[in-house]
Design a protein that fits this description.
Radius of gyration: 21 Å
Structural class: mainly alpha
Number of helices: 8
Shape: elongated
Largest sheet: none
Number of strands: 0
Length: about 220
């Protein structure tokens, strides 16, 4: 226990900085993933067979291959076309990965809204796009909050794989500390402690948001 506490006292600032980098990347990737996911969710519910097909291929490929391979393929593929920093390369890779799952989240919440609401809006003279924006999507977003929060937490933990392309997040910080001090168990345990604190913190925030918006009342039984 003593080596762990000593190493923690010596490296807390470096790990705290890495934790902040981890949160930054996760938040950035989730914002981009929501945009991607929303677009592909509309593709999935579109009447166009081409758009539905494109969405299905994207979702099947992303959900059917390991994240580590996606990061490597996207990182080395993107950098051949345009030079990106480790932060943006990692954020885009995580966004494309999470976008496939978020697309299915949005598709499910949109389709969970009673079809009668769309029919009523159209009967009042609303265009489809206006009815979606004012009536369907606000309810769909509310129902999507719990799974989106879970996806954020999953993305937070998945961000550890971005350390393999050189971004200084928590996992890479623990690797560097372990290599420098030869205290592998202690270094990785410290990283695990930081991950646990972050997950518990954001789980608490998500719980408060759900209570604030009273998400459960709009959920489908």
């Amino acid at each position: 226990m003593e080596p762990f506490l000593q190493l923690l006292s010596e490296t807390w600032f470096g790990f705290l900085k890495a934790a902040w980098f981890t949160v930054q990347m996760t938040a950035t990737s989730l914002v981009i993933a929501i945009i991607i996911g929303l677009a592909f969710a509309f593709f999935r519910i579109s009447r166009s067979k081409i758009l539905v097909g494109i969405a299905k291929v994207y979702i099947i490929v992303i959900r059917g291959t390991p994240l580590i391979l996606q990061i490597m393929v996207l990182y080395f593929g993107i950098t051949k076309i345009i030079m990106l920093s480790d932060f943006w390369a990692g954020s885009l890779a995580l966004a494309i990965h999470n976008g496939a799952y978020i697309a299915e989240i949005f598709r499910g919440t949109i389709q969970s809204i009673d079809k009668g609401q769309m029919e009523a809006a159209r009967s009042l003279g609303m265009k489809y796009s206006l009815a979606m924006r004012r009536i369907i999507m606000p309810q769909a977003f509310k129902r999507a909050i719990p799974p989106l929060g879970n996806q954020f937490i999953i993305g937070l933990k998945d961000s550890s794989l971005v350390g393999l392309i050189g971004y200084n997040e928590l996992y890479l910080a623990s690797q560097s500390t372990a290599a420098r001090t030869f205290l592998q168990f202690e270094a990785y345990s410290i990283a695990g402690l930081y991950y646990l604190i972050l997950v518990l913190f954001f789980t608490f925030i998500l719980y408060k948001v759900e209570r604030r918006l009273d998400v459960g009342k709009g959920a489908v039984s």
